Amino acid sequence: MSAFNNLSRVFDSAEQILFDDSSRIVLMSDCHRGNGSFADDFSSNQNLYFAALTHYYQENYTYIEIGDGDELWKNKKLSDIILVNIDVFCLLSKFYDAKRLYFIFGNHDILKKSKKFVKNNFSNFFDERLRKYIPLFENIILHEGLILKHTISEDKVFLVHGHQVDFFNDELWRLSRFLVKYLWKPLELVGIKNPICAATNYAKKESVEKKLTQWAKSKNQMLIAGHTHRPVFPEVNEPLYFNDGCCTHPRNITGIEIADGYIFLVKWVIKTKDDGTLYVGREILEGPKKLMDYFNASIDSNKKIAKVK
């Protein structure tokens, strides 16, 4: 029950962001941006991510990162991660300047929960070539959860990383970070998987998804999470638990788009033209589905519950 309470606590205190059927929002998580070492799970998809982000910036999307954007369990310094991914962070900074950027922290970047850490490490970056600090996200506020609230229907979409239902990665995150840093990081380099990681342990993944689904069903609340790295896109009459996947799949990244009143699950991959030229392309995995259809199904479900009572 404590796992449910943790999610409900985040939901009850989450900042609300207003949106409507003209809004364009993209949700991504679990980038695990690293320092470029052999243990960096993001580096192979860095170009895919940058191309996708460029598209979303040019198409006037708001970018919401729902946790584990940066790998702060395997890496000591956020500055090392920014240095390797400076093009990505400069582009994210452009989203921020345009007031189209929100960050939710997950378990692997839970250090961002500290306002002091964010101020000291996320506000700016020292450019050694220019020998001066470059502003990145000055005065930014990071969140444990967010709510998208429709301006007309007042329906809500709850955004949270999802580790709150995972005991080892929430309550015992300090121990888990220690084990990842000093035990599982070197073992993963030789192919041994971390048994407490929801992304690589099937049983753990199933357990987390079951709890997230049960919470969404019990609250009759649309929930979009990350953490498990497995995309989930339910049908309209199913429990309203969605998952945007991750940016560390082999050779592709996934995300959820909410655009012009519709919701999509998409992936970005390297494609080949007839002449052999490589390019980055977007594919729709699920959808488009009308977001209002999910909201209306939720209303119908509430009516049925009321009749039973």
Give an account of the 3D structure.
- The protein has a 6-stranded mixed sheet. It has a 5-stranded mixed sheet with strand order 1-7-8-9-10.
- The chain has 309 residues and is an alpha/beta fold.
- The protein has one domain (2-308): Purple Acid Phosphatase, chain A, domain 2 (4-Layer Sandwich).
- The longest helix has 18 residues, at 202-219.
- The protein has 9 helices and 13 strands.
- Helix 2 packs parallel to helix 4 (86-97) and helix 3 (78-84) packs across helix 4.
What attributes does this structure have?
single chain, 309 residues, alpha/beta, Purple Acid Phosphatase, chain A, domain 2, 6-stranded mixed β-sheet, 5-stranded mixed β-sheet, 13 strands
Number of strands: 13
Q: Order of strands side by side in the largest beta sheet?
A: 4-3-2-11-12-13
Number of helices: 9
Biggest β-sheet: count, sense, barrel? 6 strands, mixed
**Contiguous uncertain segments of 5+ residues:** none
Q: Which descriptor suits the 3D outline?
A: globular
Into which percent range does the helicity of residues fall? 25-40%
- Level-2 CATH architecture: 4-Layer Sandwich
Q: What's this entry about, in short?
A:
The chain is α/β, with parallel strands linked by helices and 309 residues long. Helix content is 35%, strand content 25%. α2 (46-58) runs parallel beside α4 (86-97) and α3 (78-84) crosses α4.
